[in-house]
Write a structure and sequence with these properties.
alpha/beta; 2 domains; Rossmann fold; 8 helices; 5-stranded parallel sheet; Arc Repressor Mutant, subunit A; 236 residues; 4-stranded antiparallel sheet
Length: 236
Amino acid sequence: MIKLLFVEDDEACAYAIQGGLEMLDLYEVRCAANGREALKIYDGFCPDVVVSDVQMPEMNGFELVRRIRENDPQVIIILATGLTSPKDLRNGYNAGIDEYIKKPFIAEELHYHIQAILKRTRNNSHVESIPENNTQHINMGRYVFDPENGTLTLNNRVTQKLTSREAQLLLLLYKNQNRMIPRMEILQHFWPGDDPVFSSRSLDVFISKLRKYLSEDQSVKIVNERGKGLRLLTDN
């Protein structure tokens, strides 16, 4: 069973989504009406997935995500909102979400989003594989990347804890290092079926964050080949 925490101040919406997911016999769902209530439930429930509204009383979705990410970089977090401007996308991804889902939506649509994220997390089958003994610690210039735990280490110091989506994207770039990956291939892998404008903005935010995380070593660069794709350049 997938343990899911659904945070929504609209009681009717929360009831409908909870009921729809539980009918699939794949989810154990707990609901909270705001961020503060969600944090109290989170500690005892330990969910695999958090789905949260943005505009709520007492504590909004962005602040909730930041609080959760302080202690848990791996839990899957999805923001459910109608706010899709570049600024809103940036705020969400900077807070640490894995994905947006646009309101309104039904339980089945949310289920497909979650399954797609889980599939990508467990299996990056369309890119070149890495030998098993190299997946624990990957050298990127002076950085050491641990994709399983989602950490970047520099000079024996953990400099960044990555979200699951950030770790997946960096691993994809590494597996294809020094090779240009078509932008559309990345979008179809991480955001299949989504609005291409919406997903392209999301990708740009993720790339900006990864560049910042890797900025202390100039030998590691993520290059955007305009109109074509992305390339991770390393000296390894």
